[in-house]
Structure formats: structure tokens, C-alpha cells
Write a structure and sequence with these properties.
By secondary structure, this protein is of the alpha+beta class. The protein has 10 helices and 21 strands. The chain has an 8-stranded antiparallel beta sheet with strand order 9-10-11-13-12-17-18-16.
Length: 436
């Protein structure tokens, strides 16, 4: 609708005292500006729905109220004279857009966006996304200008108006439980040990001395002993899908550490299924920072209890430590991590997998690795790793899925030295399966 027609429509609305609701966000987004009362170029905060009433414009708030009130108007101090002074108009915090153009020698903007998402978990809107389909002029303007860059949105809200994220709530509850002495965790500095091509990260967790471990013949390995039924509500974070509950791990190595358990008893010796992967994928997408999922299937895999549960924990930053598949590289032809001597299989997954992709990758990896019963699974955004297991312990040393990927947890510094003296990779080969 042209500017002249819009003006005529508003004049008609004023004459007959009719409210006009304009829901045409991108109609105002013009790369070759047309003279108009409101444009995103002049007032970038107007990237939302509006009510244009007889007296003044007000924002159509989240509850879709249609009467002027003391709701937040997106006109910020950048253009205070647009809105007449009214007692029930609030000048709030707001936002604006910044457009950046990439140097011509770089790849196309969509290629840069894909690499940013795949390698750095960074998502941004690249210019070609804003081409109006079917509009040849828009496509031409894209080729000559806005299609070669990215649009950044600078927006902010007062903290009191921002819903608490799942991760934020978890950290708040975690810290409160630690302060009350009900969740066992102490800050710890990891120790990195390089032996040949392999780098290991060791962490000491004194909380492990308090952690209950069910033996192989414990009834809890095969029947419901209600290990999660009396969970303190303060440990509960959320229900993830129809079959899983997310709680804070009471015996933590890192902050925070989660347990994702089935709401109905299922043996930990059962392999992962579609519901497990659906819950894991759901959770990874809801968490704001990078996380990893591990599963210890069976007693020999390093699991502590018999009620089916996955563990979710922060993934180390790349500059601090990388898991074996990232540090050593993946042989795509063999589906293995380079130089790892114990049996395993690994496969990259797509940047936006669905549940069935994860299930199919898991089943294929199990077959390739010769998994029969006990095994470990490590899942991150880029790949899945499956490791058959022979045993969980050697003397006073134990290993779970994280250990088999390079992250080893012990109760004290003496345990670290014991691992180093005996050779970390040699021990992992004892815990895993080595081809004869």
C-alpha cells in the first residue's frame, strides 16, 4: 500500500472514529526509502505490531490489549517527539538494527552464516534472507547491496521483564543448594596432562566419596527402588518431554551438572531409544551454553545406579580442552577417532538433526562397534561417540563415558597421580575393548 493510500485510509478512519490496526512489519523495511510517516530506516524500533489510534500510537503488547495504557511504547529517546506527551506513554529501553557488509573477497553471506552456526554455534540473519520472494527489484537490490552482509539486532529488556531461562534457573537453584550444604560440589581447577598425542583433563571431586553406588547384584539394577521418587523439589528443574525429568546432580564435578532420568523405572542396562534422544535433543536446544550428554549403559560402563538416566554437563571451552574427537580428528571413512587404540565408533551429525537421525546414527554406530551390552555414549552438537566397555573399575580407579572421551574424574589429587603413573590411555584400554 502506497504512502498516499495509507494517508487516505487514516483520514477516513479519523473521520468515522475507527481504529486501524497495522500488522505490516516488513512493509516498513525499505532499502530504497519511500517518503513515509514511519520507516524502519528512521525508527528501527518500530519492528513490531502497532495500533494507530486517533490520538497517538501505542504498542500492541504481549496480551494483545487494544486500549491505551501504561504499556511500553518502543519509541525510545532517539525520537521522543514522535509521540505526543501523554501520561500513559512510557519511554522504555528498546533496540535497533545495525547492518554490516562483508568484504567482497569473503564467501557469500549464507555460507558465512552456515559456518558460524556449524563451527561456533553463532546464528545471525544474513542479508539474502530479507529478499522479498517474487519481487525482482528486491532480488536485484540484494545482489548489489544488502545481500552481502548481516543484520544485527541490538535489543534489551529490563531484567524484571525477562523470563528466567532454564539454565539461569538451574544455576540459581544449584548455588542455593550448595550454600545450604544439600548439593555436594566444590570449585575445582582442572589439571591437563599431555602424554604423547593425547591430552587428558583431570578434575578432583571429593563429593564422589559420598556418592552411593549400586553393585551389580543390587535389586535397584533390575527393579524400581524409588531412587528418584523422593527428590527434593529444589533439585527439580523441569520435565523434558513426556518421559523424562531433569534434576540437578547431587554429586557434582562441574557447575551445574544435570541428571535426565526416566519418570517410570527403566533399567540402566537398556539401550537408548527414541524417547531418550528426543529428551536429550530438546534439552541441548534449550540450554544457552554448550553442553554434552553422556550415557553409561550397564554396570560395566561406569553407571552408579540402575534407574535409567543420562547426564548432561557443560562442554569445555575449545581454548581450555577438547574431547578426543575434536582434539584428534575424526576419520570419516572409518568412523573412528584418529590414534585411539580402544574400540569405538564416531559419526558427525547434521547441524540441525531430528530425533530419527540421532536414533539411526546410534544404531549404526553400535553395529559398527560390535556393542552387545555395556557401552558409553557421548553426544554433542557435532557428533556422537559410542564405546563398548569391558569393565567399570580397576582397583580404586573407575571410568565413565566422559573418561573415555578424555575427561577423567577422581576423588583426590592422589587419584590423578595414580592415573598418570599407570598411563591414562593404557587404563582406558583396560576399561574398554581392544582388538586382539
Amino acid at each position: 500500500m502506497s504512502t498516499s493510500v495509507r494517508k487516505e485510509l487514516l483520514a477516513l478512519a479519523r473521520e468515522f472514529d475507527v481504529l486501524v490496526i497495522a500488522d505490516e512489519v516488513y512493509d516498513f523495511l525499505r532499502w530504497q526509502a519511500e517518503e513515509s510517516t514511519f520507516t524502519v530506516q528512521n525508527l528501527p524500533q518500530f519492528h513490531l505490531e502497532w495500533l494507530i489510534s486517533i490520538e497517538f500510537p501505542v504498542r500492541l503488547d504481549d496480551r494483545h490489549q487494544t486500549t491505551p495504557r501504561a504499556s511500553r511504547c518502543p519509541v525510545t529517546t532517539g525520537a521522543p517527539d514522535v509521540v505526543p506527551e501523554k501520561d500513559n506513554v512510557v519511554v522504555p529501553a528498546g533496540g535497533f538494527f545495525t547492518y554490516i557488509s562483508f568484504p567482497p573477497e569473503l564467501p557469500r553471506a549464507d555460507i558465512i552464516a552456515k559456518r558460524a552456526l556449524d563451527e561456533y554455534a553463532l546464528k545471525f540473519a544474513y542479508g539474502e534472507m530479507f529478499v522479498v520472494k517474487g519481487d525482482e527489484a528486491s532480488a536485484e537490490r540484494s545482489k548489489g547491496g544488502f545481500g552481502h552482509g548481516a543484520r544485527l539486532c541490538w535489543a534489551w529488556h529490563e531484567e524484571s521483564h525477562t523470563p528466567e531461562s532454564l539454565e539461569g534457573r538451574a544455576l540459581r537453584q544449584f548455588d542455593a543448594l550448595v550454600k545450604r550444604g544439600e548439593l555436594f560440589w566444590q570449585p575445582n581447577t582442572p589439571r591437563l596432562v599431555q602424554i604423547g598425542p593425547f591430552k587428558f583433563q583431570f578434575r578432583c571431586a571429593p563429593s564422589f566419596t559420598k556418592k552411593p553406588i549400586q553393585k551389580a547384584d543390587d535389586p535397584g539394577r533390575s527393579s524400581d527402588q524409588h531412587v528418584f521418587s523422593d527428590t527434593d523439589p529444589d533439585f527439580v528443574i523441569d520435565f523434558i518431554g513426556p518421559y523424562h525429568k531433569l534434576i540437578l546432580n547431587k554429586y557434582c564435578v562441574v557447575r551445574p551438572q544435570y541428571v535426565l532420568h526416566t519418570t517410570v523405572f527403566t533399567p540402566q542396562s537398556n539401550h537408548l531409544n527414541e524417547g531418550d534422544f528426543a529428551a536429550a535433543l530438546n534439552l541441548l536446544r534449550r540450554l544457552e551454553s554448550r553442553h554434552m550428554v553422556i550415557y553409561n549403559c550397564g554396570v560395566e560402563s561406569g553407571s552408579s545406579i540402575g534407574h535409567k538416566h543420562l547426564q548432561v554437563l557443560p562442554r569445555p571451552e575449545k581454548e581450555d580442552f577438547e574431547l578426543f574427537p575434536d582434539a584428534l580428528g575424526i576419520d570419516e571413512a572409518k568412523n573412528t577417532v584418529r590414534n585411539i587404540p580402544f574400540r569405538h565408533t564416531v559419526k558427525r551429525i547434521s547441524s540441525n538433526p531430528d530425533v530419527m537421525e540421532l536414533v539411526e546414527v546410534y544404531e549404526a554406530l553400535k553395529i559398527r562397534a560390535g556393542v552387545e551390552k555395556a557401552h558409553n555414549v557421548v553426544l554433542v552438537d557435532e557428533w556422537m561417540l559410542v564405546i563398548p566397555r569391558a569393565c567399570a573399575r580397576h582397583g580404586n580407579l573407575a571410568a565413565n563415558a566422559a573418561s573415555m572421551a578424555g575427561m577423567i574424574w577422581v576423588t583426590n589429587p592422589e587419584g590423578v597421580q595414580d592415573w598418570v603413573d599407570r598411563g591414562p590411555m593404557q587404563l582406558l584400554c583396560l576399561f574398554g575393548v581392544v582388538e586382539k
